[in-house]
Design the sequence.
């Protein structure tokens, strides 16, 4: 179970959230530092717990709750400890990085919408119309004389 697909992580997240609605419900509050150990102790695979907590704790609203210094909670919803200044600073840094990434994405979308990056398409000039071939009528007697002369040349 080293690599899990996104759907597996989400289903594990839903299962854990359904089992512990006090800890993973709303309003979002920082989790106690012992939650990882508690979930592994309840039989959840270490890798699944790691992925679920990483996904949950990376959410912007979770980071904002940590930055605000909201009291951490245990799985049963009881208060634990208050985030340390080190944890608050780390959450601020991650939140700023998230916001910078979102701003960069929005700018890229706006640039894409604002106009084409390619130069406008230039129409190729159309080919001139074909020249009509006009044959000038040759006098019959002259035409026959020329045909005879050509025939003689070919024969010789």
Sequence:
């Amino acid at each position: 179970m080293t690599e899990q697909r996104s759907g597996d992580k989400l289903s594990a997240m839903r299962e854990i959230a359904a089992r512990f609605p006090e800890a993973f419900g709303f309003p979002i509050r920082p989790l106690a530092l012992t939650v990882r150990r508690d979930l592994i102790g309840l039989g959840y695979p270490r890798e699944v717990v790691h992925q679920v907590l990483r996904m949950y704790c990376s959410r912007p609203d979770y980071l904002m709750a940590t930055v605000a210094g909201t009291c951490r909670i245990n799985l049963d919803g009881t208060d634990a400890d208050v985030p340390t200044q080190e944890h608050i600073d780390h959450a601020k840094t991650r939140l700023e990085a998230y916001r910078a990434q979102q701003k960069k994405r929005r700018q890229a979308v706006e640039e894409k919408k604002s106009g084409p990056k390619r130069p406008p398409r230039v129409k190729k000039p159309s080919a001139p119309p074909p020249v009509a071939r006009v044959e000038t009528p040759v006098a019959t007697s002259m035409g026959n004389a020329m045909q005879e002369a050509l025939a003689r040349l070919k024969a010789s």
In short: Residues 6-114 form a domain with the Fertility Inhibition Protein O; Chain: A; Domain 1 fold (CATH 1.10.1710.10). Confidence is low (pLDDT under 50) at residues 1-5.
